[in-house]
Amino acid sequence: MKYLNENKPEQSTWESDLKIIDKIKVIVPLKLLLVCNSIVAKLDGEEFSIVTNIKSKTSDTITLSDDYYIPKQKVTAASIDYLPDQYSHSVVIHRHPDNLNNFSRTDNEFINQNFELSLLYTEKDYFVNGIFNLKYEDAIIPVPVKPVIDYGLEEIDIANIEPIIYSTRVDSLAGRNETKGLNDIDDFLYSYEELFNEINELNSRLEFLETELQQNRLSEVVT
Ligand SMILES: [Zn+2]
Questions:
Q1: Ligand 1 centroid vs 104 CA: distance in angstroms?
Q2: Ligand 1: distance of its center to the CA of 98 in Å?
Q3: Quick one: 28 and 86 in the same domain?
Q4: Closest to 178 (Cα-Cα) out of 163, 161, 192, 198
Q5: What is the span of the domain harbouring residue 199?
Q6: How far apart are CA 141 and CA 131, in angstroms?
């Protein structure tokens, strides 16, 4: 093996340890979902949009701020017309009817191009789609995104909560059930292991009695 020549390219022109990103993850704070849900509840099926900002960004993950603004807009069930207004947010979220999870041509021309990041929301499936406009020299490259709702639940540590496990032990010698914890259903539940041990114990008692009986008989015969 040591005589094999290493066939290695002189110098790689492309760093092989670069990350490959086919979708940027967008973390949406729960508050923005609740805001969208609440606007839906106040409207009668119309589209709408809200704007927010990017709070932080790495090469593959964008986290949104939970501050938002509702731009002045005229809406129907199929359109949004933005009215003159003053705001400078870089992220837009707009609502579509359920199951319409793709951007329309109008969306691409009039909404997506005017913001760094654009997300689609539906009442049924929440944040269903998105486009991030990656700036590259004098152009923008639209990169698909995967919106993920941050419910703020990941770090819940339940180490301080100790569930009481109800267990039923059968005191076979006394012939009664000894139940720890008061739970009617558990009085009748036995684990496989408990039954197995119980049968084994009964077996050995039977053997013991048989032996006793035999010895008794023998001793009777002898005496
Ligand atoms: Zn749209």
A1: 5
A2: 12
A3: yes
A4: 198
A5: 167-222
A6: 10
Residue 102 CA, ligand 1 centroid: distance in Å: 8
Residue 181's region, left for phi above 0, alpha for psi from -120 to 50, else beta, is left
Quote the ligand 1 centre to 39 CA distance (angstroms).
Answer: 16
Taking only the tens place, the pLDDT of each residue in 11-25 is 667 777 888 888 999
Q: Do both 68 and 99 map to the same domain?
A: yes
Residue 68 lies in a domain: yes
Instruction: Encode pLDDT of 31-73 as tens digits.
Output: 999 999 999 999 999 999 999 999 999 999 999 999 999 999 9
Cα–Cα distance measured from residue 117 to residue 65, given in angstroms and rounded to the nearest whole number: 12
Confidence at 187, pLDDT banded by 50, 70, 90: low
pLDDT digits (tens, 9 = 90+) for 102-126: 999 999 999 999 999 999 999 999 9
Q: In angstroms, what is the span from residue 24 Cα to ligand 1's centroid?
A: 20
